[in-house]
Specification:
Blueprint: E1 8-14, H1 17-20, E2 24-30, E3 33-37, E4 45-49, E5 53-60, E6 66-77, E7 80-93, E8 100-111, E9 119-130, E10 138-149, E11 154-156, E12 158-160, E13 166-170, E14 175-179, E15 185-190, E16 193-198, E17 201-204
Antiparallel strand pairs: 1-2, 2-3, 4-5, 5-6, 6-7, 7-8, 8-9, 9-10, 10-11, 12-15, 13-14, 15-16, 16-17
């Protein structure tokens, strides 16, 4: 973000099948700083955005006939990797089932040429086709705009205070950690999805109390 060239390496490592359900994780390394992507199912694709951001699109473990994917956008500020954005961007169900088909796909587009002008456009295609339950059918395209915080180096579209206390899952240890936050946090909220920025990382809010 300071206009200095930075070397960034991306590696993938398998995780023990029995303990971690066959997942792998990604290492993203810049200098002495490393970001671990623990929900990756396999290495994905990497794109460079405006010479200042790296966009990672990677698959996430789903079920039978279910494809899931997420996107992580990183930048480097003062030698440290910053999670500018992370959210689920792909869900496809029963691709070969003529009775039911679901496709949810989010595409990102960066506009602007400076940190103060950056915006990220999210274009979401949401489609369900069912012969058995036609009342559930839908086919829509919506768009959301995220502004860029040049101080925290992240994209967001609002501030929201999480329920207190709340719990997060630490993917490094698979442990549940209870947290308490009193001030509003940056969030990405759209299409029934809510992401909180907590302690330098993005977390997806659970959709139920379970």
């Amino acid at each position: 973000m300071e206009g200095v060239a930075v070397s960034v390496r991306v590696k993938s490592e398998p995780i023990n099948y029995d303990k971690q359900r066959g997942r792998c994780y990604l290492w993203v390394v810049a200098g002495t700083d490393t970001v671990f992507v623990y929900d990756a199912w396999a290495p994905g694709t990497v794109k460079v955005l405006n010479q200042q951001f790296l966009q990672f699109d990677y698959p996430v473990r789903g079920g039978t006939n279910v494809g899931l994917g997420s996107t992580l956008v990183l930048c480097v500020a003062k030698g440290k990797l910053c999670q500018a954005l992370k959210l689920p961007t792909y869900h496809q169900t029963d691709l070969y089932n003529p009775d039911y088909h679901k496709l949810y796909q989010v595409r990102l587009r960066l506009v602007g040429t400076t940190p103060l002008a950056y915006q990220c456009y999210l274009t979401t295609h949401d489609e369900i086709r069912s012969e058995r339950e036609p009342a559930t059918n839908r086919n829509s395209t919506t768009q959301a705009v995220l502004k860029f915080d040049a101080q925290r180096h992240l994209f967001y579209n609002g501030l929201k205070r999480p329920p207190s206390p709340f719990a997060i899952i630490d993917y490094r240890t698979e442990r549940v950690i209870k947290r308490k936050v009193t001030e509003p946090l940056p969030v990405i909220e759209w299409n029934n999805s809510l992401q909180y920025f907590i302690g330098g990382e993005w977390y997806e809010a659970a959709r139920t109390n379970n």
